[in-house]
TrEMBL record:
Species of the source: Neomicrococcus lactis
NCBIfam families in the record: hemN_rel
Protein name, entry field: Heme chaperone HemW
Residue numbers spanned by region Disordered: 1-21
Assigned protein family: Belongs to the anaerobic coproporphyrinogen-III oxidase family. HemW subfamily.
Record flagged with keyword Methyltransferase: no
GO biological process: porphyrin-containing compound biosynthetic process
Statement: the UniProt record of this protein carries the keyword Oxidoreductase: yes
A molecular function GO annotation: coproporphyrinogen oxidase activity
Length: 413
């Protein structure tokens, strides 16, 4: 089932943000995330806020969803203005899910048009949609390109049929290459997403998936370790002994293979699970999260972050539709993390990126632990960035495998 929303303080129906949010927001880039909660089939490993047609019930419809999201965007623009937050052009837009391309391409284009009319786009803005290889065509990709999309992220996951079967992925493996090429022919940037560590996946299987993905010559490749969340079909299968448990050593071996093969193919890591051919082909939208910039998340269950204030929408599409129709905020709750929570979050996010964690962000007790992390070959001094020549720490390969441990050591918990 979809994941549970966190607790928080009540969110006002008019969407106004707390006093001080505007000042904290000043100077930050602004992004938009649009959640499309529909899937043709629920994958066995997925605990995202997604629904098949049979799970939706009354009051929510794929046919009216684009209009509902556009109305939330109009609400967002009013709420931000009334909160005293200066209007900013969008730096990035990302349509995620779910499977965004289950909606007609013209519906996605319509939502994007609304966003452009409300905020406009920065020059060179990155505009991405996720896609299942079987849910797009050359014609639908052209509609997206003409509407202003610049990038497509294809959910490939694996090139090996028996691995896809365990994951409940329904696309035909050969369609990935066809649609990647179609997107490239239109001038779209292309990413492919892979998952390693599926029960029953051998090292040779994973090598095959990497070789296949590299052979498509995308601009960007993401490789995520399989995390089995409680309540998913795959978790139940593991509990019953139908599939083997996750093996952390297996994950580490596959990550190391990924890094070697991707580096040999000309990709450079810029975040623990992400590699790009050039700096310009990194996912700027994901970097906006890791850098702590501002974004509005539209759609059921979507999370937003504006000037240090976090808020999240009601989870079910029917409840979401009801809020939008009533012209009130779809937010379920909000919070302003305290100083300790903000510090921990900065450690967790910035330590993961190749830009590194600024030494100036560390508290005194954490700085005293840096020498030990360097001695253990978990971090290394990174190149100084910015006009001030700010010093930073960057994870080594071993550190990327143990990123959570690095954060625990620095945070001392």
């Amino acid at each position: 089932m979809p994941s549970i929303l966190p607790d928080g303080d009540p969110a006002p129906s008019d969407g106004r943000l707390p006093e001080g949010t505007a000042a904290r927001s000043a100077g930050r880039d602004f992004s938009l995330y649009v959640h499309i909660p529909f899937c043709a089939v629920r994958c066995g490993y997925c605990d995202f806020n997604t629904y098949t047609a049979s799970e939706l019930g009354g009051g929510a419809s794929q046919a009216t969803y684009a209009n509902a999201v556009s109305r939330e965007l109009e609400f967002a623009q009013r709420a931000l203005t009334e909160s005293g937050i200066e209007s900013r052009h969008l730096s990035t837009v990302f349509f995620g899910g779910g499977t965004p391309t289950l909606l007609p391409a013209n519906d996605l284009a319509s939502v994007l048009r609304t966003a452009k009319d409300l905020w406009g786009f920065k020059d060179g803005a990155e505009i991405t949609t996720e896609a299942n290889p079987d849910s797009v065509t050359k014609e639908s990709l052209k509609i997206l390109k003409d509407a202003g999309f610049t990038r497509v992220s294809f959910g490939m996951q694996s090139a090996v049929p028996h691995v896809l079967k365990v994951l409940d992925r329904t696309h035909q493996p050969e369609n990935v290459g066809l649609m990647v090429q179609a997107a490239k022919d239109l001038g779209l940037d292309v990413s492919v997403d892979l998952i390693y560590g599926t029960p029953g996946e051998s090292l040779e299987d994973w090598k095959t998936s990497l070789e296949t993905a590299i052979g498509y010559e995308p601009d960007h490749i993401s490789a995520y370790s399989l995390i089995v969340e409680p309540g998913t079909k795959l978790a139940a299968q593991m509990r019953r002994g139908e599939v083997p448990e996750v093996d952390e050593d297996d994950h580490a071996e596959k990550y190391e293979l990924s890094d070697r093969m991707l580096a040999a193919a000309g990709f450079t890591w810029y975040e623990v699970s992400n590699w790009a051919k050039t700096e310009d082909q990194r996912s700027e939208h994901n970097l906006a999260y890791w850098r702590g910039n501002d974004w509005w998340g539209a759609g059921p269950g979507a999370h937003s972050h504006i000037g240090g204030t976090r808020f999240w929408n009601v989870k079910h599409p029917t409840a979401y539709q009801g809020r939008v129709d009533a012209l009130v905020s779809p937010a379920a709750a909000r919070e302003i993390p305290d100083e300790d929570a903000q510090y921990l979050e900065e450690l967790m996010l910035k330590v993961r990126i190749a830009e590194g964690l600024p030494l100036s962000a560390l508290r005194d007790d954490a700085r005293r632990r840096v020498a030990g992390l360097i001695a253990d070959r978990l971090v290394e001094p990174g190149p100084a960035l910015g006009a001030s020549g700010e010093k930073r720490l960057v994870l080594t390969l071993n550190g990327r495998l143990l990123a959570d441990r690095v954060v625990k050591i620095l945070a001392d918990f």
